[in-house]
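One such shown below:

_____
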Amino acid sequence: MREAWRIAALVLLLVGLVACTPTPTPTAAPAPTATPAAAQSPTRLSPTAAPTTAPTVAPSPAATATPATVKVTVYFTDRNRFNAGTPPFEVGVERRVPAGANLPEAVLTEFFKGPTAAEQAQGLEGITSGFTGFSALKVQDGVARVYLSGACQSNGATYTVAQPILKNLLQFQEIKHVKIYDADGTTEDPDGPTNSIPVCLEP
């Protein structure tokens, strides 16, 4: 009986000890300390350079090109019209001569060169009456003086080199009269406001 009481007393003692022992309070984990963000230095913006506008250069006007040649009209005798008696007997064709040339001289030079093969095939002829060219052409006060070179051989023809020479030179406004000289430098009427031919060109 005593033994039973002793055991009961021990049990009660143990229960009392357990009841009196404080329950350990769980330790709260320390709150994580936030690491302060590193202070960012303000970003310094480089000033944007203002775009440089290239000065606009006004286009210079294109230089007017000087033509290397100019067009002139050279007259030859149309044999078909002459034979048919249908004036005018002279027909103009186009030639190109150097720009800046003395145009009356250039026209006479082209005349003494004669028509091209194609122009000859169309009936054009260079009537020269034996003259081969000219040594000088002088224009003054509306009078053109032509000094021919070569031997005159008109053979009494009524149509001579005088007619195409007159046609070629009188197309220029500055020329009002033409005086034609032979190789000896003679003409029928060297003075006065009239046309003139050498004696050898008379029929």
Q: What stands out?
A: The longest helix spans residues 2-20. The chain has a mean pLDDT of 83. DSSP finds five helices and six strands in the chain.
